[in-house]
Amino acid sequence: MEEAIPFKNLHSREYQGHKKKVHSVAWNCNGLKVASGSVDQTARVWHIEPHGHGKVKDIELKGHTDSVDQLCWDPKHADLLATASGDKTVRVWDARSGKCSQQAELSGENINITYKPDGTHIAVGNRDDELTILDVRKFKAIHRRKFNYEVNEIAWNMTGEMFLATTGNGTVEILAYPSLLPLDTVMAHTAGCYCIAIDPMGRYFAVGSADSLVSLWDIKEMLCVRTFTKLEWPVRTISFNYTGDYIASASEDLFIDISNVQTGRSVHQIPCRAAMNSVEWNPKFNLLAYAGDDKNKYQADEETDNNEQTWRKLKKNQKNREH
To answer: Can you say where the WD repeats lie in this chain (predicted)?
Structure first.
């Protein structure tokens, strides 16, 4: 049964702390903390009361020496958070103390990170299209795979038997896990596929593309069920809400679109002041965290030729601009 969200009554709260733009936001498994990773080389953890409006406690995670491009929480532990940075390290932090508890030095500048749903492995993608799988206990690499095509976002399915990677060729590569042998290639879009999200009910995955479309795929049949067409710019980030009824997507359009997964219809737009880099629904409540390039806060030099570059290139070229 779909839970209708009273979109008319929604309001936004803004949390300020980062000195530069935020690339990634993620909720922990109990839905009470949200983490943000920024070009300012830090991550922050905010303690969120789902229905409260009091002063928000936040803790700063310091140690990376380059941009924190993506982060994700341990799916089984509400206080452990992994960050991927351009400084070639992956770090795990304890959100209670703000201390780094584990660290691995990898071969390249990391831009993507995701946990296996059972919390045992972490996958990391770097700027050179290399995938590394870390065993969480030993914090050592157990697989390395260099792809000869542009790999963008990565994800496991709910059972962890399938590993999905979106590519610059407009495909989603489906690999068996743990062997990483190819199972299928889904010809998803006519332009590069940037982002991927797995439906929490395990029925679908969604793909956001440079062609400004979001496609919804039946994970068993590997067939496209429908597309969402509201955005006009390359889709940078997508997320399903916890019931799997709604999907949020964002780009350089100055709004976040929320669409009904079953009908494909857009039901609400959240206005934004700038391009969005990351949206993520809370795993327990209808709360949406989002972050992007706030044009009001960071001056024009941060915004150089944003529109000429795709999101992937933007991530890849960020380094050259920020030094």
So the answer is: 15-49, 61-103, 186-227
